[in-house]
Amino acid sequence: MATNTPAALYDATGYWYTSSSEERGVEVLNALRRYRAAESAMRKRTRDSMGMGDTDLAALRFLVRASRRGEDVNAKDLATHLGITSASTSVLITRLVGSGHLQRNPHPTDRRGVLLTVTTDSHVEVRSTLSAMHQRMITTAEAMTADEQAAVASFLDAMSEALSLDDHDDADPGSATQGEPAEEARVTPQHGS
């Protein structure tokens, strides 16, 4: 029977890595893939629970964080953070105001300015939806030794840097470089046995 759990989606095949790859390295990357699949599934559950899309939820998270830091946010700040156009931002704000998640407030010193704030009900909804999951995550992180925490943080920072590089800038489109999967070495993840 096929299963679609995050663990089942990324089995120990090593994806496209050849048999010459370090087995431990492949195990680490597969664990990272399982984490990303679990996180993606959690985000989908959160979006479904709150009746929102990705951009809506990202906007709310940004505004909640800004509120906690005492920072003012306007439409331009939100557009910059989300990487969307001012027209898309306007539609997003109208949608979030209409759903009761967001308020437009006059800027205290700029008569033409408008500040965006998350409603109290939205704060409560975000907390009730995410607090148990965040507590499980922090409990897991706190259970590690200081050395383990440092190793994980260092690894994730290094992976972030590795993924931030754009291989398409200097690459010859016809050649495979080290670290790139060769066509014949690709393995499709198995969804069941």
* Number of H/I helices: 7
CATH topology of the largest domain: Arc Repressor Mutant, subunit A
Point out poorly predicted stretches: 174-193
What would you report as the Rg, rounded to the nearest angstrom?
A: 21 Å
Q: Order of SSEs, N→C?
A: HHHHHEEHH
Describe the protein.
The protein has 193 residues and is mainly α. The protein folds into 2 domains: 1-50; 52-161, Winged helix-like DNA-binding domain superfamily/Winged helix DNA-binding domain (Arc Repressor Mutant, subunit A), CATH 1.10.10.10. The chain is built from 7 helices and 2 strands; from the N terminus they run αααααββαα. The chain has helices at residues 6-9, 23-50, 54-68, 75-82, 86-98, 120-142, 146-164, and strands at 102-106, 114-118. A two-stranded antiparallel sheet has the order 1-2. α4 (75-82) crosses α5 (86-98). The longest helix is centred in the N-terminal third of the chain and has 28 residues, at 23-50.
Question: How do the helices and strands line up, and which of them pair or pack?
Answer:
Layout lengths: L5 H4 L13 H28 L3 H15 L6 H8 L3 H13 L3 E5 L7 E5 L1 H23 L3 H19 L29
Antiparallel strand pairs: 1-2
